[in-house]
Amino acid sequence: MVAPTTVPRLAKKTSPPLLANLPLALTLDRNSPDALHLQLAAQLRAGVTSGTLAAGMVLPGSRALAGELVVTRGVVTLALAELAAEGVLDAVAGVGMRVATGAARPASQSTAAALPLPAWFVSPPPAPVDAGKPQGGISFKPGVAASHLLDGRAWRAAWQAAARAAPSGDYGPAAGQWPLRVALAAFLARSRGLSVDPARLMVTAGSLSALGLIAGLLPRGSRVLFENPGYRAARQVLLDAGHTVIPVPVDENGLMTDRLPPARLAVVTPSHQYPLGVRMGVPRRLALLEWARQHDALIVEDDYDGEFRYGAPPLPPLTALDEGEGGGGRVLYLGTLSKVLTPAVRTGFVVAPAALLPAVERARVLADAGHNTVTQDALTHFILGGHLDRHVRRARRWHGQQQSALASALSPLTDAGRPLAQLGGIEAGLHACLHLVPPLDAEAVAAALAVRGVFVGTLQLFTVAELAQQALVLGYGGLTVAQIETGAKVIVEVLQAESARLTP
What we know:
The chain contains 15 helices and 16 strands. The protein is of the alpha/beta class. Helices cover 37% and strands 13% of the residues. It folds into three domains: 21-107, Winged helix-like DNA-binding domain superfamily/Winged helix DNA-binding domain (Arc Repressor Mutant, subunit A, Orthogonal Bundle); 138-143 and 392-502, Aspartate Aminotransferase, domain 1 (Alpha-Beta Complex), CATH 3.90.1150.10; 165-385, 3-Layer(aba) Sandwich (Aspartate Aminotransferase, domain 2). Pfam families: Aminotran_1_2, GntR. This is PLP-dependent aminotransferase family protein. It comes from Deinococcus oregonensis. In the C-terminal section; belongs to the class-I pyridoxal-phosphate-dependent aminotransferase family.
């Protein structure tokens, strides 16, 4: 009689591995001198006493656990029996092995939470960035782009085109993909009148990222000139890099260049000073370039929203003036797509002198090996399709309407008879500065506005080492015209009420 042939049945994987459901990794080393059941018991014991395996948690059955660990069932049974004898696990009829209540450390007393920080560690203060929009009310938060104006069909098509090709198995060039560099250089020529060799343009993760790379090129402890008031997050990047930041006053013509001290770097926002909104005139731009030559220094020109101008004639970028003087190579030009397009893509660029670009590129390699290639592909499609130019024209019209609405709604404050405030920096960009007439106090006005659901900033946050000017910072890029008019009306009413209260 022939014995029947038996075919082993294949186990059907109808659920995720059991080990994937455990909040700790179990690994057994067959080359270890410790027996496998002792290794398993030690790992489960550590999971319980640390609080990773919570009290009352039921462990997988011994047969299932053995299968997952590819060991005999006896290895698992011995380990579980040892832990049960120690009181770490409880054997519950009809349930299985369960973590004993007294053996598990409460989550609030976990070892990780109780570990002290190293004695040398000093917790840094919170990052100096603007908080998110408050719930409800009208927020005049600066730096918000009108991303709702994006052509959704063109935007989706750009990302679909980028997704058609399989992603590369390499990081790609740290300076950015060549087609995007060419497209951004051409966009700069059209929008800013700046002729740029794409080989000198490097794609970055935004202006702060680019500034961090540049800060790393300076000898530690270098003196850096910085606008006061100025962009506080950028200032903190320089301080965190170990440099000495020297505040330089700003007036209605931008950075005051008459008595600049020696330094290795100056960081400026000449097209639309942040936060005052003023523009640096050509004489001061030339004076700043002369200062850089005399002191063997570099200049960072942060042109964060230079595409938006409302009737004001464009001024030549510092970079263009520098090269017009015979290619001095003193200026690093920072641009970003956060304001002109959307901060969601986290993309900007730096145009550096040819001699400096290899050092900036090296810093990028060591920082993160370069920019997201899929995002670069999508942006290349979007720009080369003409969609960025069309978006800029549409956004410029939109922001122009916002700017006009803000200026008109605040005009009662500038009446010749008894002016209460002066609106500055309104000719360009996405924010303006409302300078208050004494004895009005900006902080008190901002507090009174918040009570009525209108949220504004003041210059106090942007000013260091001296008394801040009494002014409100009004970002309007993320508001509708109706919101601007409503919010501005409240600003007028609060300022008029404050003035009446302070007037004898």
